[in-house]
Structures are given as structure tokens and as C-alpha cells.
Amino acid sequence: MQDPVKKRGIRSYVLRVGRMTPVQKRALEDNWPRWGLEYDEGSLDIDAAFGRPGHRVLEIGFGMGHSLVEMAEARPETNFIGIEVHRPGIGKLFHGLENTGADNVRVYCHDAVEILRDCIADASLDTVQIFFPDPWHKKRHQKRRLVQAPFVSLLVKKLKKGGTLHIATDWENYAEQMMNVLGAETSLTNSFGAGCFSPRPDDRPLTKFEKRGERLGHGVWDLLFIRT
Q1: What percent of the chain is helix, strand and coil (3-state, nearest 5)?
Q2: 30 classed as catalytic
Q3: Which family does it belong to (predicted)?
Q4: pTM (2 d.p.)
């Protein structure tokens, strides 16, 4: 497993040295040869990585992996590629996959921009999903937000025509910025009309965090765009 930190420009994350539980550590070490993908191996043959063809979904920043495990279990015919830089989250994801028996997830522990640039072929993905990326809510930190025009331009190249970009956030200010950035990308079309947010699609699991937010009156904004 490679160190996710390489020298490049401003990053959308801070690599925290989080404590791994014994279960997470064991799951990560035992399953990395099976489910892990290495950045240094270069361009990814997706069908070979899964041992089969299938609908291709890339999730950027899956956190502790709860929703990705749920989606993988519910959609066994889909091939999910996850990108996450925090090892405890990958360990938790692998533990969840062990418990469910799902075998349709492969994972990079590396910077998403570099993975997209160097490992994912153009027009190779059916769906890209980014759920609740760090909002970097302080104004002086907002340059670190992941969803910026250069990143979206790179990401769109990796989607097939007709492919879906699905982003969700619980920060209204970030949602508005996302809408502006995605709306300005000429290769994307808003599924619900210019400037309109999407209802939560049924295939995006409702997280415990989101349920708690709903009880407290917090909003969640989904953006659903199609590659034209």
C-alpha cells in the first residue's frame, strides 16, 4: 500500500494519523491483497480488477465505508471503486465487506486527483459519486474544497457519455458553489433543470449522520448531473 501523500498543489484533505482499532487493522492487512489497488501500477484495467465486466461506479472519499458496503451488498452486479486516504476507514470498509460477503469493491488509498489523472481511463466510468466531502467552511480554507472547476473538468473526462455525476452535501454554501461549478461545465447537464437540486435518489443510503441532521432541521442537497 502506497503513501497517499505526494507533492502537488493544494489538497482537499488533511491526512490525519487516526488510531486504528485491532479489527480495522486486521481487516486492512488481511484484505488489501484481495481488494486493494496500487497507484504505482498505473492505468487500471477495471474488468480485470474485478474479474468480470459490470456497471462501473467510482466513489471519492467514502469515509468509514458504511454506505459503500450497503450499496455493494444491494447491487452485487455493480463494480465499485473507492478512493479514501484514511486507513481506518478502509479497514472499517473491509470489515463490513467481510461481514456481508460482498466482493464487488476495490479500493485505492491515494489522492483522488492523481488517481483520476494517472489510473482511470477517459470515458471509462458509468457513475462518479462524492458524498459529503469536507466543506472547509471557514472562508480562508475554501480554496481546499474538492469540487472546483479544474477538478470537475478532469472528472468529467472519465465519465462515459450518458454517465452520472452525483454529489451530496449538508452545507448550503458548498451546495451553491457546487451548483455554480457544475452548471458552468459545458459537458454536464443538470438532470432536474438548470439550478435545481435533486431529491435524494433511492440508491444513496441514508446515513445515521444524515438522519440526525434531519431531526435537527439540517438540510442536505443532492446534485445529479449527466455527461453529455
Answers
A1: 40, 20, 40
A2: no
A3: Belongs to the class I-like SAM-binding methyltransferase superfamily. TrmB family.
A4: 0.89
Is 92 labeled as ligand-binding?
no
Hey, what's the cell of 120?
482511470
Is 209 marked as a binding-site residue?
yes
First to last CA, the chain: 36
C-beta of residue 110 within 8 angstroms of C-beta of residue 39 = yes
84 is in an annotated binding site: yes
**Residue 157 annotated as binding?**
no
More confident residue, 179 or 140: 179
Between 87-100 and 22-35, two packed helices, what is the crossing angle to 10 degrees? 80
**Active-site option among 30, 103, 126, 134:** 134
Tell me the C-alpha distance between 206 and 14, whole Å: 26
| Per-residue pLDDT tens over the stretch 92-136 | 999 999 999 999 999 999 999 999 999 999 999 999 999 999 885
As given in the structure block, the three cell numbers for residue 18 are 487516526
How far is the C-alpha of 83 from the C-alpha of 108, rounded, in Å? 5
Cell triple for residue 170?
449538508
Give me 13's grid cell. Answer: 484533505
CATH architecture of 22-227: 3-Layer(aba) Sandwich (3.40)
